[in-house]
Amino acid sequence: VRNNPGGYKHEMVQVLDYLLPAGQLFKTLDYTGKEEVTKSDAKCLEMPMAVLVNAESYSAAEFFAAAMMDYEAAVVVGEKTIGKGYFQMNYRLNDGSAVNLSVGEYFTPKGKNLAGVGIVPHVEVEVDEETFLAIYARTLDPMEDPQVLAALDALKK
């Protein structure tokens, strides 16, 4: 989920349900006080996993990594995430424009809101700007990517 600006809650929850055991996956609380909790069934994938993150991992991508951390299902490698803990609704206006308004908060399986906090990876690996740009452009060979190499090393332990 490195360089992933997020996505839809439904898809994130579907993937987490496949990967994680029974329990809470995700919670939202809107500003009216309405709470929605999504849970996983008992079936899960049990194998060594790593998740790569950076400051460009936010929203559903960031919460995906946080859920994997909460369940201790994966080693998270990379750089601290930004900490987006709110969800928005898009409202179309009569003139054809639109406005996005934050209407609620997201919570990890352990009940943490990541707003302004983010997640700190188990294995922190900073990259310089040149490496970041090569990763972003997908021109860096994975076997020369320090975060991929750190993830592979962590999985061997």
How is the secondary structure organized here?
Layout: H1 9-19, E1 23-30, E2 35-40, E3 50-53, H2 60-70, E4 75-78, E5 86-92, E6 98-107, E7 123-124, H3 129-137, H4 146-156
Parallel strand pairs: 3-4, 4-7
Antiparallel strand pairs: 1-2, 1-6, 5-6
Helix pairs in contact: 1-2
Provide a quick synopsis of the model.
The protein contains four helices and seven strands.
Protein architecture, described:
The chain is of the alpha/beta class and 157 residues long. The chain is 27% helix and 26% strand. The chain contains 4 helices and 7 strands; from the N terminus they run αβββαββββαα. The strands form 2 sheets. A 4-stranded antiparallel beta sheet has the order 2-1-6-5, covered by helices on one side. A 3-stranded parallel beta sheet has the order 3-4-7, with helices on both faces. A hairpin with a 5-residue loop joins β5 and β6. α1 packs parallel to α2. The longest helix has 11 residues. The chain is globular.
Quick one: how many beta strands?
7
Write the element-wise H/E pattern from the N-terminal end onward: HEEEHEEEEHH
Oligomer: single chain
Largest sheet, order of strands side by side?
2-1-6-5
What are the low-pLDDT stretches, counting only 5+ consecutive residues below 50?
Answer: none
Roughly what is the average pLDDT, rounded to an integer? 94
What would you call the structural class?
alpha/beta
State Rg: 17 Å
- The percent range for strand residues is 25-35%
Query: For the terminal residues, how far apart are their CA atoms?
Result: 22 Å
Helical segment count: 4
For the sheet with most strands, the description reads:
4 strands, antiparallel
Shape by Cα distribution? globular
Residue share in helix: 25-40%
